Automatic annotation (TrEMBL):
It comes from Anas zonorhyncha (Eastern spot-billed duck). This is Uncharacterized protein. SUPFAM superfamilies: Pseudouridine synthase. PANTHER family: PSEUDOURIDINE SYNTHASE-RELATED (PTHR13195), PSEUDOURIDYLATE SYNTHASE TRUB2, MITOCHONDRIAL (PTHR13195:SF0). Signal peptide: none annotated.
Amino acid sequence: MASIPAGLFAVYKPPGVSWCRVRDAVRARLLRELNEAPEPPPRQRIRFLPAAPGAGGEPGLVPAWVPVLAEHPLVRGPRFRQLKVGAGHRLDVKASGVFGGSLPAARAWGEQAVRAGVLRGCMAVPGHPGGNKSA
């Protein structure tokens, strides 16, 4: 089975577009691109296939490597059917700016970065209450 992707990302959100639509568009594009990625080669297993009758007239079994068809994309469908995308913050519909998000395994990274104040200097506005006072 394919591994679940993880990471933090930033996307520009234009004014007039809801943050939900931006998140859904990111999710749809990630799903499409992940499913279009090249497939790993199919697993092989040994099967005993009937052999043609030999000189003795007695049919036998011959071992052969065959692909596991249960893992074929036409049988199992796309590798990724759903993907949880977290929203770091929710911008108003009229607002524009950087929309931060995360994939499930990276959620803890984002929470740690916010608690540690790593992002505070990046998003601070000089002169704004709670902004960067050193600037």
